[in-house]
Amino acid sequence: MRPETSISASDITWPVILVPACNRMLGNEPYHVVAKQYIDAVWIAECQPIIVPGASASGLDDLLKAVHGVLLTGSPSNVHPSHFNETVLDESLPLDPERDAWTLPLVPKVLALGMPLFAICRGFQEANVALGGSLFQAVHGVTGYRDHRDKEEDAIDVQYGIAHDVFIEPGGMLEALLGKRVIPVNSLHGQGVNRLAPVLRVEARASDGLVEAFSAANSTGFALGVQWHPEWKASENPVSKRLLAAFGDAAREYRAARTKALAQERNG
User: Fold this and answer.
1) Which residues are designated catalytic?
2) Taking the alpha carbons of 153, 156, 158, 164 in that order, is the dihedral positive or negative?
3) CA–CA gap between residue 265 and residue 267 (Å, rounded)
4) Cα 152 to Cα 1: distance, rounded to the nearest angstrom
5) Which burial class, exposed, middle or buried, applies to 235 when counting CB atoms under 10 A from its CB (0-12, 13-18, 19+)?
6) What mean pLDDT is predicted for residues 117-135?
7) What is the distance between the alpha carbons of residues 154 and 60, in angstroms, rounded to a whole number?
8) Alpha-carbon dihedral sign for residues 186, 189, 193, 199
9) In the chain, which end has fewer C-beta atoms inside a 10 angstrom radius, N or C?
């Protein structure tokens, strides 16, 4: 939930976080949509969300000059498997090629800038593919892995309820942020990481070995992806609050560093 304090003129100094919109038909009309819980998560990080419906390849650099971080959201849609050289396994599942077209090239640009990146569920899968990794299109169909999906017939609080533990790798970013080796998480995904992109480092796994979190090994900034949904009732979850606080802090540091660099450039 958004903080109780109302936005004032001073809030324009908050870091701006790019949040990509998904493309969905509502009735007979196409819409750009973002689940409210992701916007609330940006407020909790004390940042200003800006929802972006899309961008041309030539416009990505200019777009990134206007923001201080990127939150790649979850979504009912999957990354199109053509981006990791596979055909669609289940045509009944939703895809969003319009989102793929600009967020996949966005990810390496964000990392190259050292700009904070927080990737959640679809965004987590998206980042892995964008950086050269691949996905299991149906984790539950792969021998040795559990079924990580929620049940559509369950109430929403059950769907987003705690499903299993994840085991945090020692010496990584996630352990440093949380000071824990095991945390309970929700689980609402059918796809998952198959081949991890070469530039990524495993930060946590489920008990079946599936990658549940990664960081960008050589990034100079905050770059974290998680397969679960920390944005769900984030204000009630200490782990979620810690992750969002770290993301917000990183965005503030990035904004300050960029402002300083621009001032030095203007002053010669």
Assistant:
1) 121, 229, 231
2) positive
3) 5
4) 24
5) middle
6) 98
7) 39
8) negative
9) C
In the prediction, which pLDDT does 1 show?
45
Look up the pTM and report it: 0.94
- How far, CA to CA in Å, does 136 sit from each of 20, 79, 115? 23, 11, 28
**For residue 4, pLDDT beyond 80:** no
Decide if 105 contacts 54 (C-beta within 8 A): no
Residue 10 in this model has a pLDDT that exceeds 90: no
Which range has the worst mean pLDDT, 84-93, 195-204, 218-227? 218-227
Asked if 68 and 254 count as a contact pair (C-beta separation under 8 A), the reply is yes
Burial class (CB in 10 A: 0-12, 13-18, 19+), 142: middle
pLDDT at 12: 59
| Token pair for 86 | 């596979």
Mean pLDDT of 23-52: 97
Among 191, 195, 189, CA closest to 132:
195
| Per-residue 3-state assignment (H helix, E strand, C coil) for the chain | CCCCCCCCHHHHHCCEEEEECEEEEECCEEEEECCHHHHHHHHHCCCEEEEECCCCHHHHHHHHCCCCEEEECCCCCECCHHHHCCCCCCCCCCECHHHHHHHHHHHHHHHHHCCCEEEECHHHHHHHHHCCCCEECCHHHCCCCCCCCCCCCCCHHHHCCCCEEEEECCCCHHHHHHCCCEEEECCCCCCEECCCCCCEEEEEEECCCCEEEEEECCCCCCEEEECCCCCCCHHHCHHHHHHHHHHHHHHHHHHHHHHHHHHHHHCC
